[in-house]
Amino acid sequence: QLACPLDLGCHSVQKLGFSDSVSQFLAFVTKENASATLPKIADAFDEILMAHNKESRATIVVAKTASREAVAEVEKLVQETFPEYKKIHFTVRVDPTIVGGFIVEGEGFTIDRSKATMINKFKKALSVSA
User: What's the CA angle centered on 43, arms 113 and 92, to 5 degrees?
Assistant: First the structure.
């Protein structure tokens, strides 16, 4: 077991309810002046935990603020499309350049049902046939 030097504030961290292991880890990070790496460590841990729990993340992109019901419909569609995930955590982003519809950007997939893409495909089809 690692020592927990008083000058590193481990005991203060323990008072916050962290376990001995976490307190020692934070003491080590502090001692090594590596606290800037904590967000990366936390993100990596989160990714590992999500994979273990069969969870994923996705962003729903809409042209304008969507109703909760509309977002829920898209979430349901994506969850049904990828049943291998027990849960998908969604965020919503507004991008007026997609004109309408939605785009879902997930880990390893994109579902594009935007009007901008439909218009571009239509224009391309017209230029090929002309």
Answer: 25
Measured distance CA(101)–CA(113) in Å, rounded: 6
Residue 42 carries which DSSP code?
Answer: H
Task: Please tell me the pTM assigned to this model.
Answer: 0.75
Displacement of CA 43 from its chain's centroid (Å): 10
- What six digits make up the tokens of 68? 């909760």
How do the pLDDT tens digits run along the chain, 130 residues long? 445 554 445 556 666 778 888 888 888 888 898 889 999 999 999 999 999 999 999 999 999 999 999 999 999 999 999 999 999 999 999 999 999 999 999 999 999 999 999 999 999 999 987 6
Q: Where are the beta strands (DSSP E) in the chain?
A: 55-62, 87-94, 101-106, 109-114
CA distances, 115 to each of 3, 24, 43, 124 (Å): 60, 53, 34, 14
